[in-house]
Amino acid sequence: MEHPGFNLIDHNTRIFFRPKLANWYAGEPLAAAEAIIMIRHREAFAGKSVLDIGVGSGRTTRYFLPFTASYLGTDVSPPMLALCRKTWPTADISELDMRDLAKLAPRQFDFILATSGVLDVLTHEARLQALVDCVTLLAPQGLFVFSFHNRRYKKAGCPPRLEFSGSTIRWPLTSARFVRDCINHHKMKAFEHREEDYALLNDVVHGFQGVFYYTDRATQTRQIEAVGLSLVEVVGDDGRTLKEGADDRDDGLVYYVCQKLH
Question: What is the pTM of this model?
Answer without folding.
Answer: 0.94
